[in-house]
Amino acid sequence: MFKKILVPLDGSDLAERALEPALTIACQQKGSEVILLCVPVYQDILVPSAVGFDLLLPDQSLEKFRGNIETYLHEVKTARNRPETRLRTLIEDGDVASVIVDTAEEQAVDLIIMTTHGYSGFSRWLLGSVTERVLRSAPCPVLAIRQKRPMTNILITLDGSLLAEKALEPGIELAHLLGGRVSLLQVDQDTNLGAIELSMLELAETGLSHHIQKEAGNDHLVNYLNKTAESYRQKGLTIETVVIEGTPARSILDFAEAEEIDLIVMTTHGRTGLSRWVYGSVTEKVMRGTEAAMLIIRSAEEHLN
User: Fold this and answer.
1) Is 139 exposed, middle or buried (0-12, 13-18, 19+ CB in 10 A)?
2) Above 90 in pLDDT, residue 25?
3) What is the pLDDT of residues 159-207, one digit of tens each?
4) CA distance 224 to 130
5) Is the C-alpha dihedral spanning 216, 172, 127, 149 positive or negative?
6) Cα radius of gyration (the chain)
7) Cα atoms in the Cβ-side hemisphere of radius 13 Å centred on 176
8) What is the pTM (predicted TM-score) of this model?
9) 208 within 8 A of 151, measured Cβ to Cβ
10) Is the dihedral of CA 84, 22, 111, 137 positive or negative?
11) How confident is the model at residue 127 (pLDDT cuts 50, 70, 90)?
12) CATH code of domain 4-145
């Protein structure tokens, strides 16, 4: 599933945090490939001269700058070469986030792995901003890394919808490749809604308020998660199921912190299923509030927009 992996680099140690998980995943799959991508952001460069420093303008510094990047990528490739995996380097010009997305499409990439914040390296990317833009347009799942730690405690969030279930296969596969254990989590939201909230739900979708009120109580949630987990348990995976009460984003964040979750797996949006989460908003809140890594899967419908 994740045989071709794209890792954007900017010359910094922070961006290189994505390399270890990328190689761990790739090395367990025959015929896998990791693409190391650098997108130069050309700036004025000061260089030593006989009288102090001279300013090299972008046109003058272009060749020297690209040479530095080529050297850097070659060193990274050499240092992390694995006989089981092909490493390939690319240097592409353009807007950083757009180039990452375009490269993923052109190279038929299965997974993008990148860090989520930082401001360092050759290209001086503002990694948080770049990652968020990539997440909105990526044609494949994106694994956003925050900390340099193994990802063995994995959380997959569900809401009972087919859309949310798109996180299952990639999440389970990643857990298998990383040797992790999985928790399936569903949040049972408070359904004691007032007249205004019920009216707003009806405006969004006819019959939605009745549907939510009817689904009060969490027995059906427990049954749903257990049934979902059972098919994967039969394949030898360790999976636990959890239903907790509260609001989705806050409950996910609290659970992830309490259980020391290393990786949270979510889809990016949705307004369907038992809990009727507005998934884009929930995912965004979780991503900005957690220190865990996140695997984000965009829906096919969103790819078409």
Assistant:
1) middle
2) yes
3) 888 888 899 999 999 998 998 899 999 998 755 555 666 576 667 667 6
4) 37
5) positive
6) 22
7) 15
8) 0.80
9) no
10) negative
11) very low
12) 3.40.50.620
Specify which of 41-45, 269-273, 290-294 reaches the highest per-range mean pLDDT. 290-294
Query: Starting at the edge strand that comes first in sequence, how are the strands of the sheet with 263-267 ordered?
Result: 86-91, 33-38, 4-9, 111-115, 142-145, 293-297, 263-267, 153-158, 181-188, 239-245
Residue listed under structure tokens 């990047």: 69
Q: Residue written as tokens 């907790």?
A: 244
pLDDT of the residue at 198: 58
Percentage of the chain exceeding pLDDT 90: 40
CATH number of 153-303: 3.40.50.620
Residue 122 identity (one-letter amino acid): F
Q: How far apart are CA 187 and CA 185, in angstroms?
A: 7
90 touches 35 (CB < 8 A): yes
Of the candidates 242, 244, 188, 197, the one whose C-alpha atom is nearest the C-alpha of residue 216 is 188
Q: Sketch the domain layout of the chain as residue ranges.
A: 4-145, 153-303
pLDDT tens, residue by residue, 59-105: 555 777 788 889 999 999 999 988 888 999 999 999 889 999 999 99
- What beta strand segments (E) does the chain contain? 4-9, 33-38, 45-49, 52-56, 86-91, 111-115, 142-145, 153-158, 181-188, 239-245, 263-267, 293-297
Contact 107, 100 (CB under 8 A): no
**Residue 270: helix, strand or coil by DSSP?**
coil
Q: Pick from 138, 161, 60: which is nearest to 294 by CA?
A: 138
Q: Which residue has the tokens 């949310």?
A: 164
286, 266 contact by CB (below 8 A)? yes
Residue 198 phi, psi (nearest 5): -65, -40
Pairing between strand 52-56 and 45-49? antiparallel
